[in-house]
Amino acid sequence: MELKKNPKADLRKNSGTYFVIGLAVVMFLVWRGLEWKTYEKTNDYDVSMNVEDMLDEEVPMTEQIKTPPPPPPPAAPEIIEIVEDEVEVEETVIESTETSQEEEVIEVEDVEVEEIEEDIDVPFAVIEDVPIFPGCEGEKGKGAKAMRDCFQSKMQKHIAKNFRYPEIAQEMGVQGRVNVMFVIQKDGSIGGVRMRGPDKNLEKEAARIIGKLPKMTPGKQRGRAVRVPFSIPITFRLQ
What we know:
With 239 residues, this protein is an alpha+beta fold. It has helices at 15-35, 51-55, 144-162, 167-172, 200-211, and strands spanning 176-184, 190-196, 220-221, 224-225, 228-236.
């Protein structure tokens, strides 16, 4: 006698479905196992802290707000007394300056205008009467050219006589030419001395030489004494 199988009792019929469900359950359990984390129970709070103690803490004096004193009461207004002016003021009467027909007109004579002498500078090369260097008085009648030549000659002799080379300039090996400019004043004295040279020591020596010039007879233009600018070079050369 042969056994007959019941098709409903066949366990292999839904094996694929059961396999998928079991695989999904296993994967879920594995995932949960990997994601599972444990934490230590710690208490980060200090239960001993008392809020009232913090409120009772004293505030430093520097942090206390200083209340400004109240403003002083306003001063009482001054009482202004009105005083009557008892002083009599004299009125100033301004008289008219217009002339009437009845007044006589006085004739004024011619007014003489005085000429004001102006300080002018006339160059040495064009002045009419050249300043006279002491010792050149004898050349006065020989003309302006002879007076200029005598002046130049006396200037050169004066420089040669008073020349002295500064020792410090010699030690430093300084040499060159100093251009000296000065003015022969209206009284014959020397003023307005200016120098321009390669070294201050040489300029100082040139000023000393010019300062020893004698007083001269002033130059004249149209018969009136005028100031005469003059310039001359002084050469310092080492030998």
